[in-house]
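Much of our argument rests on the idea that a fold can be written as discrete symbols. In the encoding step, the backbone of a single protein was reduced to a row of integers, each denoting a local shape. We regard such an encoding as a compact summary of how the chain folds. The record that follows shows the chain in one-letter code together with its fold in token form:
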Amino acid sequence: FIGGAERFAEEIVRHAPPSVLLTVYTARMRLDLPRQETVNGVTIYRLGFGCAYDKFFFPFLAPMKALFCEYDCVHAVMASYAGAAALFIYWLKRTPYVLTLQSGTLDMPEYARIIRFIFPLYRAIHRQAHTVHVVSNALRLRALSLGVPSEKIVVIPNGIDCARYTDTGIARLPLRIIVVARLEKVKGVRYAIEAMEYVVRQFPEAELVIAGDGSERHALEELVNEKNLQRSVMFKGLVSPEKIPTLLATGTIFVCPSLAEGFGIVILEAMASGCAVVATGVGGILDIVTDGINGVLVPPASATALAEGIARIFKDDALRMRLVAAGKVRARAFDWQDSMPRIFALWP
């Protein structure tokens, strides 16, 4: 169940100071996962019944668990289920909490309609936080729109472990395009597939490799069949974070076709790996990619624009090399070693 938010939580655990006694509460989600375990000295409690609905129970189960424990601070990663849990713990025990905003998904129209029904609670999750940590300027604007005072908002971007993205010696395939994303509507993967219709007309040997899984996978596979792109589009399924650097090292172009994005860690990973980046100009992506400097920005929900951006790079080796060189420099500016001390300084 790893996405950007989960990786951020993992990095907190990995970099936490030795003086901090850290406990992780998470939803169980799967029956074969243990309810409790200790990893590298950190106790992990998985709350729920081992099913997909555990995330809905989490805002209530976490406060029940915390009721019998003493904590100096709660750090809630995301404003939905974890944010609600932190708010309820605050109401019960007055334990201050830091709220981290990571995702742009909640800005999608279908989620906005849901939030409208719970808006007072959603707003309270943000306003009652001791500090609201946001990973991009786009999320800062969201927090401000919900009434969070500007002095309570701190922008600290996500990072990567730059040391993992050294030269692997793997042969880079000159016409390979890579997408790494959850296969959900917000990630816009269908537009990358539709773009391949145009790309293969100019570059018949071009291939699109899609790493990830999600509720849209079956529909995306049907789209590939409908467009007769079976030879040009490959689904890799879930790829473990440890194997992502190796996969990225095989690609020439990385595409991020998101319709909304809180930040986009995988864009930094692609840059560090030596891929040229084509991405939509939405949300936190604008904090990473500068059009024509370290990547190519295109409008969201446009297969034609994606195809033009891809073709532009395939046709111009000098442009590709400039984008790759600038991308590597940009990626080095985002390292967990630099950002994590600033995160820990937010804890009251």
In short: The longest helix spans residues 317-332. DSSP finds 13 helices and 13 strands in the chain. The longest strand covers residues 42-47. The mean pLDDT is 94.
